[in-house]
Write a structure and sequence with these properties.
globular, alpha/beta, 225 residues, five-stranded parallel sheet
């Protein structure tokens, strides 16, 4: 069954060129012309990946990604942001909102397709590892050897959780719900710069390289509820 990709852009020409190219590449494509419409389509179609513009009416791409990430079912959904905005701070804002890749306009459709294939393959691997881990947990009731492995894993998770400070745990919880540094700062009464320091500490303690990996790690290892 073809994978489904949601393409969101208020420019009809951009939507058509991307959707036509992806359909020729074997994907099922659904489109929306703004973030509000896209949010409803995420719930309806459960796409495998989102490609979205940033500057759109009603709801921009940053807010769309943040709202999608707040839903447990879509915390790991791959998202690519497309935009003509190329300033460093704007790219940082894109990653803080929860996107997996920031692709500046103009871009080549071949490059976009390559990025999509990469993110979908990574998503498939993560899902396979989760299913494998789940089967292992079920098997814990079958043999004593697997019970010991499970206990060891739980102890490792407990040790990691114990190494996190209460503030780091608060930041991690908000991060998995799609909060940006600014939103977390408001929630915790901290400056965005201080929040970033906590995020950096979490990345170091979990040996992850970016926020998306950190969220996946936290969910997989039970560091958040």
């Amino acid at each position: 069954m073809p994978l489904t990709i949601l393409v969101v852009d208020d420019d009809l020409g951009t939507r058509l060129s991307i959707s036509d190219y992806l359909e020729l590449s074997g994907y099922t494509v659904v489109t929306a012309n703004n973030g509000q419409e896209a949010l409803a389509m995420v719930d309806h179609y459960h796409p495998d990946l989102i490609v979205t513009d940033i500057v759109m009416p009603q709801m921009n791409g940053y807010e769309l990604v943040r709202r999608v990430r707040q839903q447990t079912a879509f915390r790991l959904l791959p998202v690519i942001l497309l935009t003509a905005r190329t300033k460093t701070q704007e790219r940082i804002l894109g990653y803080q909102s929860g996107c997996d890749l920031y692709l500046p306009k103009p871009f080549e459709l071949e490059e976009l397709a390559a990025a999509i294939r990469n993110l979908l393959e990574r998503s498939r691997i993560i899902q396979s590892e989760y299913r494998f881990s789940h089967k292992d947990n079920v098997g814990n009731f079958v043999t004593k050897e697997v019970e010991i492995k499970s206990l060891s894993t739980e102890l490792q998770q407990s040790d990691l959780l114990a190494s996190l400070t209460p503030r780091e745990q608060e930041v991690l919880e908000l991060l998995t719900h799609g909060f940006s540094n600014i939103d977390m700062g408001h929630q915790l009464h901290l400056s965005p710069r201080t929040v970033e320091k906590y995020v950096s500490s979490l990345l170091r303690k979990t040996a992850t390289s970016n926020r998306a990996e950190l969220v996946r790690f936290a969910i997989k290892h039970g560091l958040v509820e």
